[in-house]
C-alpha cells in the first residue's frame, strides 16, 4: 500500500490560514483546489479588441457579463499591454521575449523559439490550441506541433483559406474540416476546446484559445437578428458572442468538476480595428489597431480560479505580454525555457501578494501598416518603433514623450515643461531604452 503523504503549507492567497496538502489537493476551510502540480490553465486571447470594449473596464456600450463575472470573482489588471498587431503580440506572449530579440516578420514565429506550449508539455501537461494561428510564414515559421501542442484546431494554418466565420476553413489535427454555410467557426473552435477539456479532465492540461473574433470582417453571429446592420452594431454583437463563448467554456469546466483546479485567463492581442468609432464615457473613440498608442496596445487582463484567486482583486501593476510565460511557469511549477526571457511573473499579484512588478515595460514594433511608423519609425526602412512606458508616461526611442492619458499622442511633453513627476519618469524610461540594439536581431522585412 502506498503511504499517504501529507504536509502543511501556508496558503499563498491568505497567509494567515494554514492549509493541508493531501495527494495534490489543498484543503482550505472545506474547499478543495489544485496544487500547482495538477493545476489546469486556459488562456483566452481575443482578436482586435481594446480594453475599453468591456463593461468591467468602464464601457456602457459593450455588454460582457461573463467576462465581468470573471473579473468580479477573480483578479483584474488595469495596466496590461499587448503589442499593436497580432503577430508581434502572439510571438511575445508565446515566448516571453521582446520583439527586438525574436520578431521576424508579419505571420512568422521562428521555429528556433521555445513557446509556453513546449514548456507545459515538457512539464507533463496535455496541450491544445484552437482558433487563429498565422505563425507559419517564411522563412522559418512554426506549426502547432513544433510549438508543443498535442492537439490543434486552427484557422490561418497551412491548407486553410480565408473564411473564419461562416463556412469556415479549419484544419484540425491535420484534417481540413468539411463545413457548410450553416457552420460558424467560433462554435467549432469552442466545441474542440470543451471536448479536449472533457477528454483530459483526469490529468493537467493547458489550453491556448486565441479567438478569431472580433476581427473584421464584421458579420452576424448565430444570435444576430435577421437583416442588415452597420459594422459597429455587428462588432458589438460579435463582442457579445465572444463573451457568451467564454461563459460556455467556464460552464464546461464546471460541468467536468474542474472549476476550482483551472486558472482561466482572458486578454486580447491589440487594439480595436481602425474602421470603428465607438462610444466610451462621453467621448467617442476611434479604433487604434496597428498604432503604437494606448488605444492600440492597452488590453484587458482577467485571471480567475475560485478558491485560489481571491474575488475582487484589482492590480494597478504593469503587465506586458512577455510576462505571461513566466507567470504560467510559476502557477504550474513548470521549468522556464533555458533562454533569456524579458518578462516576470504576475502570479503573486493574482493571489494578493506583492510580487516584483516592473517599474516600466519596453516595447518593440515593426509595422506592416506604413502610417503607423510615420511619427516614430527609425532604423530598418524607417519603421522600427521602440518605446518604454509606465502607467503614466511613455518615451519613444526618438525622445518623443507623452502622457499615457493622451490617447492619440497629440502633444509631446518638452523637457522641463511637465513637472517633477514627468521628468523623473523621463529619466527612468530613458535608462530603460539605453543600450538596446540599433535593430531587431531577427528582423526580415
Description:
The N terminus is likely disordered. The chain has ten helices and 20 strands. The chain has three domains: 34 residues, no CATH class; 323 residues, Alkaline Phosphatase, subunit A; 72 residues, no CATH class. With 445 residues, the protein is of the alpha+beta class. Helix 5 packs parallel to helix 6.
Our measurement of the CA-to-CA distance between the termini, rounded to an integer number of angstroms, reads 62 Å
Secondary-structure class: alpha+beta
The second-level CATH architecture of the largest domain is: 3-Layer(aba) Sandwich
The largest sheet is: 10 strands, mixed
Q: What is the number of domains?
A: 3
Indicate the low-confidence ranges by residue numbers. 1-33
Nearest-integer average pLDDT: 92
The coarse silhouette is globular
Instruction: Tell me the CATH superfamily of the largest domain.
Output: Alkaline Phosphatase, subunit A
Number of helices in the DSSP assignment: 10
Question: Helix and strand succession?
Answer: EEEEEHEHHHEEEEHEHEEEHEEHHEEEEH
Determine the CATH topology of the largest domain: Alkaline Phosphatase, subunit A
User: What fraction, in percent, of the residue positions are helical?
Assistant: 10-25%
- Report the C-alpha radius of gyration, rounded: 21 Å
User: Strand order, biggest sheet?
Assistant: 10-9-8-7-11-5-12-15-6-16
CATH class category name of the largest domain: Alpha Beta
Overall number of strands: 20
> Which percent band covers the strand fraction?
15-25%
How would you summarize this macromolecular structure in one to three sentences?
With 445 residues, the protein is an alpha+beta fold.
